Each structure stands twice: as C-alpha cells, then as structure tokens.
Amino acid sequence: MQDVGEVTHRDHEATILEAARDLLAERGLAALSMRSVAERVGVSATALYHYFENKQDLVDRVVKSAFERFGAYLDEAIARYPKGSFDRVRAIGEAYISFAQEHQAYFRVMFSIQLRDHLRTIEDLPGGGGYPLLRQCGVEAMDAGVMRPADPDLVSHFLWATVHGVVTLGLACRLAGCEGCRCEEGDVSPMDLFHAFGPLIRHGLEAPAAQGVRP
C-alpha cells in the first residue's frame, strides 16, 4: 500500500510540472522563473524547492516528461501493426501528428526549449525524440521488402521532417484546401495533409518518363 504522503508529494510534483509546462509553452524559457510557476500553482516559491533543485532541474523534468509521454504514445500507436509493414511506418507518422494536436503544450516544449547554449543532437533528446523507433520501423520495412533499400538515416530524416513540417505549419497557420485532401477550402488539418502526402511519399514526385532521361 502506498503511503499517503508519497501520493500527495507525487500529486503536488505533477501539478508543478504541468504549470511549468504551460508557462514554457506560452512564454518561453526566458520568462519562466520559480516565482512565476509558484504563482501559477498558488504556493510560495520556497515550496517549489522541496520538489526541484532549481529552475534548470524543473525545466529538465518538464522536457523529460514530455518526451516520455511522446515515446509511450508512439509505441502504443504502432503496436497493433506487424513489424516490417508499411502500415507501421504510416502509423508512427500519424501518431506524431496526433500527439502534437492533442498535447500542444508538451509538443511546443519538446522542440522549442533549448537546454544548452548550443543546438541539441538527437542523442541529447530523451529517448532520442522518437527517432530510433522511426528508424527501426523503416529498417524493418526495408528488410521485409515493402520499402526500397536506402540509407535508413536519410529516409528517417525525410519522414521526420515531413511530419514535423506538417505539424509546425498546422500550429502556425490555417492550411489551404487542396483537391487531394478531399476537404473544403481553408479546412485542412495536418492529418488531412499527411494522408494526402501518401502517394508522394510512396512513389515520389518524378514522372516515370523522366526517370530514363536523367543525366
């Protein structure tokens, strides 16, 4: 049986993390302080130091929590599809977009908060930011013969850039209607656009007739 004090401590910690997450998503890292988080939660700034060593510790925990949720979300999304299937590759892209739409505050924190003075590498991201799982799905699809052989890192970066770009556009502005999306003008979601990209991702842009005349 769990100790009541332990449960209460964990609940308070979760409330603080959520408040810090929302402030980071709304105002950015520069505007975040232990005092601003404490005011959002309704406690004294001193109380926060019972749970977190300092601001950096709090920010690190928020980012780590966001990526952990993201990773679990991706794992669950692909679990129903067999390894090596193209459906599994598509599912991870759909899950990426769904997570960003359902958890916008977490998504904004994950990819906008720089914890160091230099750009992060994939290895710096908790769980690799989902990249190892995406790469694994691609490699399995190549091994199964449902995806043409190619540099798995190049393919992974292409797919990652595609879904991240769609999500970023969707968060920044209304996406224009297009016939391929089968929806009304001005009423296109990132998921609509991703699905419309399907044939382009599978078959590319180059016309078959041009493939035989390339220099």
Q: In one word, what is the shape?
A: elongated
Task: Please tell me how large the radius of gyration is.
Answer: 21 Å
Q: What is the tally of helical segments?
A: 11
Intertermini distance: 71 Å
Structure explained in plain terms:
The protein is mainly α. The chain contains 11 helices and no strands. It has helices at 4-27, 34-41, 45-48, 55-78, 86-102, 104-112, 131-143, 152-172, 190-196, 198-203, 208-211. The N and C termini lie far apart (71 Å).
Describe the structure concisely for a colleague.
The protein has eleven helices and no strands.
Summarize this structure as a short list of keywords or feature phrases.
elongated, 11 helices, mainly alpha, 215 residues, disordered N terminus
In terms of topology, how is this protein built?
Blueprint: H1 4-27, H2 34-41, H3 45-48, H4 55-78, H5 86-102, H6 104-112, H7 131-143, H8 152-172, H9 190-196, H10 198-203, H11 208-211
Helix pairs in contact: 1-2, 1-4, 1-6, 4-5, 4-6, 5-6, 5-7, 5-8, 7-8, 8-9
